[in-house]
Amino acid sequence: MTAINSPTFDTTYTQLPEHFYSFAEPTSVPQATPFALNLALANELGIDTAWLSSDAAAQALVGNTLLADSKPLAQAYAGHQFGSYNPQLGDGRAHLLGEIVAPNGERFDLQLKGSGPTPYSRRGDGRSPLGPVLREYLISEAMAALNVPTTRSLAAIATGQKILRKGAEPGAVLTRIAPSHIRIGTFEYFAMQGDQAAVKQLADYCLQRHFPNLAQTEQPYLALLNEVIKRQAKLIAQWQGFGFIHGVMNTDNMLICGATVDYGPCAFMDQFDPDKVFSAIDRQGRYRYNQQAGIGQWNLVRLAQALLPLLHPNGEQALACAQQALDAYVQHYGSAYQRVMSNKLGLSAPQAEGQALTEQLLAIMAEHELDFTQCFRYLVDQVATDPTHQIIGNIFAAPDELILWQKQWQQRLADDAQEPEQRYQQMNNANPAFIARNHQVEVAIRAAEDQQNFAPFEALLNVVQSPWAYQPRLRSYALAPTAAQTVKNTFCGT
Ligand code: AMP
Ligand code: MG
């Protein structure tokens, strides 16, 4: 029999001063029943899949036992929530078990979410209901399959504990993997207290951990700011390309490493509506679809402000550096968005004509309330060169205006030097057939909550993990919701 190896930790965050975190251990729960184990991710991370499948892993990842070398901690952070500053947030229901180093040398946080109270819990119970854990698992893995930078889900484990929300709900713990959980709000936490030494320590830590090549440059802190700006711009452009609405883009939910985090009230939209909002608490529509890029910049202003004293010893010059970096966001976002959209339309390079085509298309989609995902997939069907390509066919009906638009688009494609085969590949890799549709996510959550039936969750997970090729046998997952199925609001899941 071969030995089973539990993960080994190599945690660097504890080298930072003690006011960056609080050591806190997860609280025990009655049961540890895994309902999702991500063996493929375990393999990528160099985690023994035999261990992950074992009861020992379930006990450790629900927080009932401690792994060797793990000294769990909750991280301190602050953040702007819906525009207002909250000086004291922090991991109120999460425990960082430690950092692991994957075989390819990349370092990741292994964190439990929903694992009990910490010194940052305020009035919260430190727990997470099953529903939001399922939602985060599904959507984070869907995003990974779509090649959007994201935190990942390694395991989801039912606790057998009822927790009180609107009523009594089953509880669960998610094992989250992230390049790190350092947020814009982590910088704000120290900067707003005037603790410049801590801001510098955190910035140096981020440079070492995420951008070691920038640490050697002449102005490393400005380079850090520029890099975070570039990554945020690119990330949000990718969200736009998949109709993804994050829903709670507070500065404590924006990671320095540029990965999507905090799948609370998020959703992929069905019918295209540029003003779409799902989150029940976002009454002003602050985080609506067409506002995400602007909010990204607003958040980065908060980061720039926190970094200001590091950018230049002279205050005015520091401001000028920050301003220049923030101004560049608009270009970074604009070119990333154009790249996303030209990939979706099969154009070999972004150009003005492509922009105009995109705008016209989105206007038609909004006017006719077309399904965002289906409409782009329908365009892939028009350029398919692969005889095994399956068209979405009778699912999507193109209105006359779209057919007219297509003529212009086809003409533009004809002028493009790109080979048809290459164009098809390009579009096929930018326009998924399957997204984690909100009504399907709800079906999966309901079945799990009401009947302990995880089959709909597993089936949906399988579908969204292979989002690109349409398959007629999975037709129901590509359908838009009926009026009765439509989910109007999503909730934070706290
Ligand atoms: P979120 O909306 O998930 O970004 O959480 C915002 C803040 O509230 C973070 O500091 C969380 O740790 C904290 N929080 C959310 N839910 C709970 C809970 N059930 N118990 C304690 N803290 C929580
Ligand atoms: Mg959060």
Features:
single chain; 494 residues; alpha+beta; five-stranded antiparallel sheet; two-stranded antiparallel sheet; 17 helices; 44% helix; globular; binds adenosine monophosphate; binds magnesium ion
Task: Walk me through the topology.
Layout: E1 21-23, E2 33-37, H1 39-45, H2 49-52, H3 55-62, E3 73-75, E4 79-81, E5 84-86, E6 94-101, E7 107-113, H4 130-145, E8 152-164, E9 168-178, H5 184-191, H6 196-210, H7 212-215, H8 220-241, E10 244-245, E11 267-268, H9 292-311, H10 315-345, H11 352-367, H12 372-383, H13 400-415, H14 420-428, H15 438-451, H16 455-465, H17 475-478
Antiparallel strand pairs: 1-3, 2-8, 4-5, 6-7, 7-9, 8-9, 10-11
Helix pairs in contact: 4-15, 4-16, 5-6, 5-9, 6-9, 8-9, 8-10, 9-10, 11-13, 12-14, 15-16
The chain binds adenosine monophosphate and magnesium ion.
Magnesium ion is lined by residues 252-253, 262.
Structure description:
With 494 residues, this protein is of the alpha+beta class. Among the domains are: 12-184, no CATH class; 347-428, no CATH class. It is built from 17 helices and 11 strands. It has helices at residues 39-45, 49-52, 55-62, 130-145, 184-191, 196-210, 212-215, 220-241, 292-311, 315-345, 352-367, 372-383, 400-415, 420-428, 438-451, 455-465, 475-478; strands at 21-23, 33-37, 73-75, 79-81, 84-86, 94-101, 107-113, 152-164, 168-178, 244-245, 267-268. The chain has a 5-stranded antiparallel sheet, sandwiched between helices. The protein has a two-stranded antiparallel ribbon with strand order 1-3. Strand 4 and strand 5 form a beta hairpin. The radius of gyration is 23 Å and the shape is globular. The mean pLDDT is 97. The structure holds adenosine monophosphate (AMP) and magnesium ion (MG). Adenosine monophosphate binds at residues 89-93, 120-121, 124-127, 248, 252-253, 262, 264, 492, 494.
